[in-house]
């Protein structure tokens, strides 16, 4: 059942970013500015104050150019050829606030926009565009003390290689050598990798800002590749958790505990994930309730009381999604868990779907609840 739920949640991303307003869109305001995710010096793509995006691509010999947005790049915006071989077009309506993947199709071939920075999603490096959000302050780069995100390579006997993880250590970690920290293991979704939460999600900036404001207890975040992309889209029921569970529980966690100053026990260890990473979180926390004390599913399914019955009781179950996903199911899950005596919290991100603004907001809501 969890795989069916994940498939529904993941599919929602396609409709959330390509099915714009269902009513007549407002008149387009001509106050377009370059996206904050553009390559240095590039004027396009651009975004206006209403959330419309405008694209401009040079392809003088092309017969057709289309920009496709969202996971998998479905639907899209047809561009019109103009002078000097430039193709230009504007989305049919405003887009959801936050980050979106996109690519450019030129005469049937899929390419990245040379004007935009690239982000790993859809099992490939995709172009990215940011629609400024009304609440973007919580992940803004500010003049506060910053933590450090470092790449580590940890040995994995089960896969016969060294694997990569990114580790966020909070401000002060390098100066106070006596202090130990709780750890959150934070997973990406299908089509993404261990770079997603830092690059697309701004997890480090979210943490830095909340620590500076005194809103959270500082903790370490570990982000590694969940091996989810080794199953093709449409074949998610065939995904087997065992290989990744071994990598995470038997190899990565011991490495982190040996090489970082961690509080190495269940009550100071959390696992959370977005979308298919939420599916991994649910499965592993149910398989290994003695390893993790805090659970987080971000657009990644739900827990039922029967799932947790007879196991070590979690200290927190956090469940979230966007309002354009299945919020009733998320809220009901939390209500049922509370009635059964569990500490459960639900959160619904307003006016977003299966996308990173939902997950940025979810991390922002979940982090203050961890390690209490």
Automatic annotation (TrEMBL):
Coiled coil: none
UniProt keyword list: Hydrolase, Signal
Signal peptide: 1-19
InterPro entries: AB_hydrolase_fold, Esterase-like, Ig-like_fold, Ig_E-set, Mycobacterial_A85_antigen
Residue ranges crossing the lipid bilayer per the database entry: none
GO molecular function, a single term: hydrolase activity
Name assigned to this protein: Alpha/beta hydrolase
Source species of the chain: Spirosoma flavum
Classification of source organism: Bacteria, Pseudomonadati, Bacteroidota, Cytophagia, Cytophagales
């Amino acid at each position: 059942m969890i795989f069916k739920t994940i498939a529904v949640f993941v599919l929602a991303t396609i409709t959330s970013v390509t099915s714009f307003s269902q009513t007549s869109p407002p008149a387009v305001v001509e106050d377009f500015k370059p996206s904050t995710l553009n390559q240095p010096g590039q004027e396009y793509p651009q975004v206006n104050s209403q959330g419309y995006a405008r694209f401009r691509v040079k392809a003088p010999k092309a017969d057709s150019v289309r920009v496709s947005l969202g996971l998998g790049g479905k639907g899209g915006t047809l561009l019109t050829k103009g002078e000097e071989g430039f193709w230009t077009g504007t989305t049919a309506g405003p887009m959801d606030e936050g980050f979106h993947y996109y690519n450019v199709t030129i005469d049937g071939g899929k390419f990245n926009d040379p004007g935009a920075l690239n982000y790993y999603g859809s099992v490939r490096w995709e172009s990215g565009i940011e629609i400024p959000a009304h609440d973007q302050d919580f992940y803004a780069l500010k003049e506060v003390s910053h933590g450090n995100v470092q790449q580590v390579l940890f040995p994995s006997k089960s896969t016969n290689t060294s694997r990569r993880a990114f580790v966020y250590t909070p401000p002060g970690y390098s100066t106070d050598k006596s202090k130990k920290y709780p750890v959150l293991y934070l997973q990406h979704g299908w089509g993404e990798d261990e770079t997603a939460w830092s690059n697309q999600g701004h997890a480090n900036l979210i943490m830095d800002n909340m620590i500076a404001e005194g809103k959270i207890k500082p903790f370490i975040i570990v982000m590694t590749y969940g091996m989810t992309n080794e199953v093709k889209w449409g074949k998610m029921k065939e995904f087997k958790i065992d290989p990744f569970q071994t990598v995470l529980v038997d190899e990565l966690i011991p490495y982190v505990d040996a090489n970082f100053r961690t509080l190495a026990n269940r009550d100071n260890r959390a696992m959370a994930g977005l979308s298919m990473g939420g599916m991994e979180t649910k499965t592993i926390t149910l398989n290994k309730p003695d390893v993790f004390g805090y659970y987080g599913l971000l657009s990644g399914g739900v827990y039922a009381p029967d799932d947790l019955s007879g196991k070590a009781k979690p200290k927190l179950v956090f469940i979230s999604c966007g309002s354009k996903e299945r919020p009733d199911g998320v809220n009901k899950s939390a209500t049922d868990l509370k009635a059964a005596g569990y500490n459960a919290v639900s959160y619904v991100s307003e006016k977003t779907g299966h996308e990173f603004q939902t997950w940025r907001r979810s991390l922002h809501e979940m982090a203050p609840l961890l390690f209490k």
